[in-house]
Amino acid sequence: SQKIEQNSEALNIQEGKTATLTCNYTNYSPAYLQWYRQDPGRGPVFLLLIRENEKEKRKERLKVTFDTTLKQSLFHITASQPADSATYLCALAPDSNYQLIWGAGTKLIIKP
Amino acid sequence: EPEVTQTPSHQVTQMGQEVILRCVPISNHLYFYWYRQILGQKVEFLVSFYNNEISEKSEIFDDQFSVERPDGSNFTLKIRSTKLEDSAMYFCASTNRVPNEKLFFGSGTQLSVL
Predict the structure, then answer these.
(1) Touching check for B29 and chain A: CB below 8 Å?
(2) Closest approach of chain B CAs to the CA of A10, in angstroms?
(3) Planar angle of CA A110, B106, A52, nearest 5 degrees
(4) Residue B101 sits in a domain of what CATH number?
């Protein structure tokens, strides 16, 4: 079956370290993959989009990689801060004419 | 920065009642969406709307659901006869880019069906 997997266990990281979150998918060949941040009781907030022909994308302290061979995207936050604590969601569209399918998210906790 | 607004933030209703969830997307956006998220679970697509018509809907979006864009600003989701399992957070989203890219979400309406 088609699915997106994110680590369901919370990720605890010490402030200042790099946090790395994983998004794995099966049976898709998406044209792009997106990462969103979600705080409790709030809607997702778009962070980054990476296309299939891009290996890496950066935005300030954020970096996303996309390996279409491994069917995996990695999301990195460098110099992490307690304010980065949230749930991070990955989402992809199986093809350009299909709606987004979402991972369950990984809860990131940055400890001071 | 422009934002998607949703009202009400909380809605409590009795099973079988009709509810209307309201959204004001960002003004120059063209693609509109409703998603829902049951507590602790994934975000689930309900329906997309473009050019005054539904462009796609999921299996969740059955005959009990409908959407309208009655004027140039509001975008509503109606559930005709609510069920207990409709209890969830409902999010409206919009984008002006290519469909499904860089969605802007509202803060959601928490619907509780008793």
Answers:
(1) no
(2) 13
(3) 70
(4) 2.60.40.10
